[in-house]
Amino acid sequence: MGYRVVVAGATGNVGREMLNILAEREFPVDEIAALASRRSLGSEISFGDATVRTRDLETFDFTGWDIALFAVGSEATRIYAPRAAAAGCVVIDNSSLYRYDPAIPLIVPEVNADAIHGYSNRMIIANPNCSTAQMVVALKPLHDRARIKRVVVATYQSVSGAGKEGIDELWDQTKGLYVPGQEVAPKKFQKQIAFNVIPQIDVFMDDGSTKEEWKMVAETKKILDKSIKVTATCVRVPVFVGHSEAVNIEFEDFLDEHEARDILREAPGVLVIDKREPGGYITPIECVGEYATYVSRIRQDSTVENGISLWCVSDNLRKGAALNAVQIAEVLGSRCLKKG
Question: Is residue 340 scored above 80 in pLDDT?
Answer without folding.
Answer: no
